[in-house]
């Protein structure tokens, strides 16, 4: 005969297991479908069903702790591609690697003060999942200069750009950045990652990507310029086509 203590331990373990299973099912049921599309993304001429899905935080439904792409392919297989967590997400089906088959291009808004977007590019051509990645943000050297000025140098092109920031003189003096027009100490600018990365048509009629980065001074609200970069995917890698630097008229300071 089973002892009472052993029986109670068995029951407790059973209930704990059942609770864990129910909790997992409930958690899975909380996923929401952000978008649903049908397209041939494998190249076999048949349609796949592509879902962009997310799992909200229990206490904060406006933020998704999990975001992923779910594909029901025409060969009967299912593919799941995890992305990063974020406030919002979107998915476009576009051929960015120029192989004649649409790719999965996703954007996730982080929701922070810098308005940073995280981007992902994947291919399922031939039912093989390939992470194509996206171009890294433009690298640059940046710093304030004496006389209420700032300078950036684009590493890829070697070009240098200067910005006159005298209209922010009182603001910078109040914060102790300058004293009588001289920098108190060497200070770099805030070079943000992409705030936008979107497909665009290039001069050759093919699709590429256009990114926008914010350059700020001592805070994200202190915008100095925007860097617009255009990229083309060729020979298995992203190539920089063009860079434009647009000065910001910061009226908030």
Which helices and strands occur, and which strands form pairs?
Layout: H1 4-29, E1 32-39, E2 48-56, E3 64-72, E4 78-82, E5 88-94, E6 103-109, E7 117-123, E8 130-131, E9 140-145, E10 149-154, E11 160-164, H2 169-174, E12 178-179, E13 182-183, E14 190-201, E15 207-216, E16 223-234, E17 237-247
Antiparallel strand pairs: 1-2, 2-3, 3-4, 5-6, 6-7, 7-8, 9-10, 10-11, 12-13, 14-15, 15-16, 16-17
Describe the structure.
It contains 2 helices and 17 strands. With 253 residues, the chain is mainly beta.
Query: Which strand-content bin applies to the residues?
Result: over 45%
Characterize the biggest β-sheet: 4 strands, antiparallel
Question: What is the topology, as strand order, of the major beta sheet?
Answer: 1-2-3-4
Work out the radius of gyration: 25 Å
SSE string: HEEEEEEEEEEEHEEEEEE
Share of residues in helices: 10-25%
Structural class: mainly beta
Overall geometric form = elongated
How many helical elements? Answer: 2
Low-confidence segments, ≥5 residues, pLDDT <50? Answer: 7-11, 18-29
Overall pLDDT score: 89
First-last Cα distance: 81 Å
Number of strands: 17
Task: Summarize, please.
13% of the residues lie in helices and 47% in strands.
